[in-house]
Specification:
single chain; mainly alpha; Rossmann fold; 3-stranded parallel sheet
Length: about 150
């Protein structure tokens, strides 16, 4: 089976939004994507960085991607409850706010529906068994964006 799409994984494990912001210009120039999936911010939250900084960095990345006329799919992140209800709620609200502001597609949380046993020992990262559910969470929205004119 031959696909008409080329997928480039430009992610870096442990990346923060500030790192993504530093790299986005070169990545956009090097790959010239028609569609970019933006899934950043969890490491900002896990490090306790200010939510305003995370939102500002994501906003700048979104603006750069949009200025290159690329479609964008934003993947929302959530934090574990031990970071406190106030912080985690404010953090999670960043993604729908940005999606609404920029009129971009949003998947609120790509790990939705993954059972506890499909996470690694850190209870944060999914294991290989979780990949089918992640695909089910992402594919419908991604397909809509790919098929949109």
């Amino acid at each position: 089976m031959h696909s008409q799409y080329v997928v480039v994984n430009a992610s870096i494990s442990g990346e923060t939004t500030s790192g993504g912001l530093r790299r986005i210009t070169k990545a956009m120039q090097a790959h010239r994507p028609a569609l970019l999936i933006l899934e950043l911010g969890a490491n900002d939250g896990l490090r306790g960085l200010p939510n305003a900084e995370t939102k500002k960095n994501l906003d700048k990345i979104i603006k750069q991607v949009r200025s290159a006329n690329a479609k964008l799919l934003l993947i929302g992140m959530q934090l574990p409850p031990n970071y406190g209800a106030s912080y985690t709620q404010r953090f999670s609200s960043i993604y729908p706010q940005l999606a609404k502001t920029h009129h971009i597609a949003l998947i609120p949380f790509m790990l939705k529906g993954i059972p506890a046993e499909q996470f690694q020992a850190d209870n944060l990262h999914p294991n290989a068994a979780a990949q089918a559910q992640i695909l089910q969470n992402v594919l419908p929205t991604l397909t809509q964006l790919l098929n949109a004119k």
